[in-house]
Design goal:
The structure holds two protein chains of two kinds. By secondary structure, chain A is mainly alpha-helical. Chain A has 17 helices and eight strands. Chain A folds into two domains: 46 residues, no CATH class; 317 residues, Cytochrome-c3 Hydrogenase, chain B. Classes of the chains: A mainly alpha, B alpha/beta.
Chain lengths: 401, 184
């Protein structure tokens, strides 16, 4: 309401300040937003993060390179496998070792599985926030299936800690590959079920089209990555730009949006489901036989269990590796990035010749994406803030580290 | 263009600023003086042959008792078009931990710089809204510095808001539900 009309009516209005969160079901964790509202329009939005800050970077400085793997599970707990792969890849690049081909394929499979599992959570909660409840119930059915498959590989459903520096913890069974293949057969049909529910839904289109628009240049300037950037039409995907593991051996497309609104980002992620499914199928078809841990790096990887029965002098090696950690190069520094479901997860490690990192920096996509929230929401309605939180797909465990 | 070539171009353009070029694991790091960091970043972004428009990461590193100057602010810049990656390491001395902010060039640096200020105590000149982000507003000290203890303050020095919370919890105990018959 303009000042003039306020005076005519003889009363004044003022902006309303409300605090949303940190305990709020639609903030996907403990995100607190201070909203300044003029009527129902957002004038200013200030996000407050840090409620889940556990000092992961400081903790890493006290742990050896091998002990650091479980901490990476706890970053983005919806896609633990992809984070594990990111961490072990960074350490491998620092030490200059390479995993055997079979392990690379297995890692690609589990990364893509966790991408599907994470996107399912995103779709379910995003739709639930906007008001489509049925999708949540459908989507959880598939996630349960995937978590059972994770359990089959490593015994854990959420905090997996399955990849190791130099390979993976154990080989996958034929039985697992068979049931995963069955999943990839079924999954495209299930995707159509989700799409029947919301893709042409009039309410869904009204709530998502033209909301939270960000142009390509601006998205890059804000440092966005992953599907949040690709929704604006920028073809940037770490899997294509700097292929790791077996991504250069499989065939897949990078889906792009055009307008950069909530709906385009939604379409991008839905297409990513199909691409991930395609990658998993190719990996299962192509996966070679062979070892899953590299034998070339005896000073980094723990000796295999079956060697203890026949060889002598392995116990001191193992004890040394567990207590002191493998000695890293003296003045090494490496920035290693992987494409996790949320975007680009980067590890910047500075080593000083001991078994523990001097500094380990985590570049988490959720942290950057949470900062763009005010840019997306100002000028829109309060209800659209919820749609925007959903579309940037943040996990506060990763944001606050 | 190879990463080393980019470093050489940078050296030719800013001969006084670039102190050293290091290579490790196929990645190149350029060690810089802090004074003209905004100019360097702007040059890398606007030069038509480089176009390093994506600031992947900005973080601080504390080289306490390892080398002087003590701090470094590390920038990872990437060109989405040409797929070049380069790392800039700007040196910041302990006595005067101040560096220019690059928010005007890369909007995404905003929260990274706030985090660096929060955890290392490095001030970014020209930042629009420099305050703590991960730690509480009234926290003392900068936790990621190497001389900061691994366990937090206890006893007398405990963080005020936490000790208040404990006191309040103690007070509220009298309103707790009686759980079993034995306690009646």
């Amino acid at each position: 309401m303009s000042v003039e009309s306020e005076e005519k009516l003889g009363h004044s209005t003022k902006d309303l300040v409300i605090s949303m969160g940190p305990q709020h079901p639609a903030t996907h964790g403990v995100l607190r937003l201070i909203l300044e509202l003029d009527g129902e329009t957002v004038v200013k939005l200030t996000p407050h993060v840090g409620f889940l800050h556990r000092g992961t970077e400081k903790l890493h400085e006290t742990l050896t390179y091998l002990q650091g793997i479980p901490l990476s599970d706890r970053l983005d707990y919806c896609s633990a496998m992809a984070n594990n792969v990111g961490y072990v890849l960074a350490v491998e690049r620092l030490f200059g070792i390479e995993a055997p081909l079979r392990a690379k394929y297995i890692r690609t499979i589990v990364s893509e599985m966790s991408r599907i599992a994470s996107h399912i959570i995103w779709l379910a909660t995003h739709a639930l926030d906007i008001g489509a409840m049925t999708v949540f119930l459908y989507a959880m059915r598939e996630r349960e299936w995937l978590l059972d498959l994770f359990e089959m590989i490593c015994g854990a459903r959420l905090t997996t800690t399955y990849p190791r520096v130099g390979g993976v913890r154990n080989d996958v069974s034929e039985e697992f590959l068979d049931s995963l293949y069955l999943f990839t057969d079924e999954f495209p049909g299930r995707l159509l079920e989700y799409e029947t529910l919301i893709d042409q839904n009039r309410i869904w289109l009204k709530r998502t089209k033209g909301i939270g628009v960000i142009s390509a240049e601006e998205a890059i300037n804000w440092g966005l990555t992953g599907p949040t950037l690709r929704g604006s039409g920028v073809s940037y995907d770490v899997r294509k730009h700097a292929p790791y593991d077996a991504y250069d051996l499989v065939d897949f497309d990078v889906p792009l949006g055009t307008k950069g609104d909530v709906y385009d980002r939604y379409r991008c992620r839905m297409e990513e489901f199909r691409q991930s499914n395609r990658i998993i199928r190719q990996c299962i078809e192509k996966i070679p036989k062979g070892p899953v841990m590299t034998p070339d790096a005896p000073k980094v990887t723990l000796p295999a269990k079956d060697r203890f029965a026949t060889e002598k002098g392995l116990l001191p090696i193992q004890m040394g590796l567990m207590r002191k950690g493998p000695a890293a190069p003296a003045e090494g520094e490496i920035y290693s990035a992987v494409e996790v479901p949320k975007g680009e997860l980067g590890f910047y490690i500075v080593s000083d010749g001991t078994g523990k990192p001097w500094r380990l920096r985590l570049r988490s996509p959720s942290f950057v994406h949470a900062s763009v929230l005010s840019r997306l929401s100002v000028g829109h309605l309060v209800a659209d803030v919820i749609a925007n939180i959903g579309t940037i797909d943040i996990v506060l465990g990763e944001c606050d580290r | 263009m190879e990463p080393l070539e980019i470093a050489k171009t940078l050296q030719a353009r800013f001969p006084d600023e670039v102190r050293e070029v290091k290579e490790f694991g196929g990645q190149v790091a350029v060690i810089l003086r802090r004074d003209r960091i905004t100019d360097v970043v702007t040059y890398l972004k606007t030069d038509s042959a480089l176009q390093m428009d994506l600031l992947k990461d900005l973080c601080g590193v504390d080289y306490h008792e390892k080398k002087k100057p003590r701090f470094e602010v590390v920038y990872h810049l990437y060109s989405v078009k040409f797929r070049y990656l380069i790392r800039l390491r700007a040196e910041v001395p302990e006595e005067d931990p101040v560096i220019e902010s690059v928010v005007r060039v890369h909007r995404g640096a905003d929260w990274h710089e706030r985090e660096c200020y929060d955890l290392f105590g490095i001030t970014f000149k020209g930042h629009p809204d420099l305050r703590r982000i991960l730690m509480p507003d009234d926290w003392e000290g900068h936790p990621l510095r190497k001389d900061y203890p691994y366990s937090g303050p206890t006893g007398e020095n405990e963080w005020k808001r936490f000790s208040n919370l404990l006191e309040k919890a103690e007070e509220n105990k009298k309103f707790e539900w009686v759980r079993s018959r034995d306690q009646l």
